[in-house]
Design brief:
By secondary structure, this protein is α/β, with parallel strands linked by helices. It contains twelve helices and eight strands. Helix 5 crosses helix 6, helix 6 runs parallel beside helix 8 and helix 8 runs parallel beside helix 9. The structure holds 3-methyl-2-oxobutanoic acid.
C-alpha cells in the first residue's frame, strides 16, 4: 500500500546522510507533478501570497487561504508529506491560538505537519503543538513574516552575536520537539555548523550545500516569472516563456480561423443534416 513520507522517515534520512528534497506547491496540478518527480516533501508555503495571490509580501495570507490550497495539494498527492505553513498572526499570539489553527491544518486541510517561523521566541508554542500530536517544522534565519521588522530580504547571522542567536534558535526548536528546521538566507558555513550541531534535519534555502535538505519555491525553479530570480534560486526551466508562446499561438489560431479544425470539432452525419434540412 502507498503511504506518505513521515517525520520519522525524514529524520532517518538525515541519519543515513540522504539529502531531503522539498519544494513548494499550492494546487492540485503542481502537487501532482512534484510528486510524479519523486519529491517526498511538499510545503504549502505562505509564499502562496506572493507567487499565487499577487501580494507584495506573505503578511496578508490567512489561515483559510492556506487551508484552501493545502486541501488541493493533499488531493493531488498520496506519497508526499504535506507541510502547511502557518501564516502571520496565526501562532504569534500564543500557544492556544496556535494549537487551534494548527489543528485546522491537520483536521480540515489534511496536512501531515505544519511549519512556523521563529526560534527561542516560539519554542513554548512548538512544545504545545508537538505535545498535542502536531509535528512542527521550524523556520529561522530570514523569516519573511517579519519583513516589516527586518526591513528587507537579506542574509542573516552575519555578526558573531547574530550567528550565535541562530544556533541557539535551532537548538531551542529541537529541544521543543520540532522534527526539522528551515534555514533561510544563512551563510553556508553557519548552516553547516547548525546542521552538525542538531540531530533533526536542516532544510536550506539560500543556506549552502551542507544543509540536510533543500527547499525551493515552485515558481522560481520553473521560471514562471521572468522578471525576478532570487540569488538562491536556479531556474531549471522557463515555463513562463513556454506558456506565453503557447497562448499567443492559440490566440493567433483563433483570430486566423485555424482553430478549431475538423479534428477538434464534432461533425454531424450527412443523413442527419439532410433530415434537418427537410424538417427545418
Ligand atoms: O513560504 C514558503 O514558501 C517558505 C519557503 C521559502 C521555505 O517558507
Amino acid at each position: 500500500m502507498e503511504r506518505r513520507t513521515t517525520v520519522t522517515d525524514l529524520k532517518a534520512m538525515k541519519k543515513r546522510g540522504e539529502k531531503i528534497v522539498m519544494i513548494t506547491a499550492y494546487d492540485f496540478p503542481s502537487a501532482r507533478l512534484v510528486e510524479q518527480a519523486g519529491v517526498p516533501l511538499i510545503l504549502v508555503g505562505d509564499t502562496l501570497g506572493m507567487v499565487v495571490l499577487g501580494y507584495d509580501t506573505t503578511v496578508p495570507v490567512t489561515v483559510d487561504d492556506i487551508i484552501h490550497h493545502t486541501k488541493a495539494v493533499v488531493r493531488g498527492t498520496n506519497k508526499a508529506h504535506v507541510v502547511a505553513d502557518m501564516p502571520f498572526m496565526s501562532y504569534q499570539t500564543g500557544p492556544e491560538e496556535a494549537l487551534r489553527n494548527a489543528g485546522r491544518m491537520l483536521k480540515e486541510a489534511g496536512a501531515q505537519s505544519i511549519k512556523l517561523e521563529g526560534g527561542v521566541a516560539v519554542a513554548e508554542t512548538v512544545r504545545r503543538l508537538v505535545d498535542s500530536g502536531i509535528p512542527v517544522m521550524g523556520h529561522i534565519g530570514l523569516t519573511p513574516q517579519s519583513i516589516n521588522q527586518i526591513g528587507g530580504y537579506k542574509i542573516q547571522g552575519k555578526t558573531p552575536a547574530a550567528a550565535v542567536k541562530l544556533i541557539n534558535d535551532a537548538v531551542a526548536l529541537q529541544e521543543a520537539g520540532a522534527y526539522a528546521v528551515v534555514l533561510e538566507l544563512v551563510p553556508a558555513q553557519l548552516s553547516k555548523a547548525i546542521s552538525e550541531r542538531i540531530t533533526i534535519p536542516t532544510i536550506g534555502i539560500g543556506a549552502g550545500v551542507d544543509c540536510d535538505g533543500q527547499v525551493q519555491v515552485f515558481h522560481d525553479l520553473l521560471g514562471l516569472f521572468s522578471e525576478f530570480l532570487p540569488k538562491h534560486a536556479k531556474r531549471y526551466a522557463q515555463i513562463g516563456d513556454s506558456i506565453v508562446a503557447a497562448v499567443s499561438q492559440y490566440a493567433d489560431d483563433v483570430r486566423n480561423g485555424q482553430f478549431p479544425t475538423d479534428k477538434e470539432s464534432f461533425i454531424q452525419r450527412e443523413d442527419v443534416l439532410r433530415d434537418v434540412g427537410r424538417l427545418a
